[in-house]
Design brief:
By secondary structure, the chain is an alpha/beta fold. It is built from three helices and five strands. A five-stranded mixed β-sheet has the order 1-4-5-3-2, sandwiched between helices.
Amino acid sequence: MPIDVARLKRRSDFLRVAATRLKAVTPGMIVQAAPRAGDGIGVGFTASRKVGNAVRRNRARRRLRALASSVLARRGTASTDYVLIARRDTVIRPYAALERDLEAALRRLGRKVPGS
């Protein structure tokens, strides 16, 4: 059963997720997680200048948004916020490999997030 996915937009939300220090690193991305007050899943996306110029950063965020819409709704843990951080390889990595990366990261984080 798909879960409702909401966007994280405020800096304070990103900082709260980062403060939990729960993360899974894969070749295509870094996924951070934190318990969420309430139902549903929250997701935010970020790409630093290390990823590349503005065109590459925007492409990386678009790819992460597409992944989140296809994978998080069915594999994400309810009442959890996720932040997907792009890496240099996010832009050039095949989409199927990015899907596997996200699913592996969610499995690893599912064992660590309290209440999951």
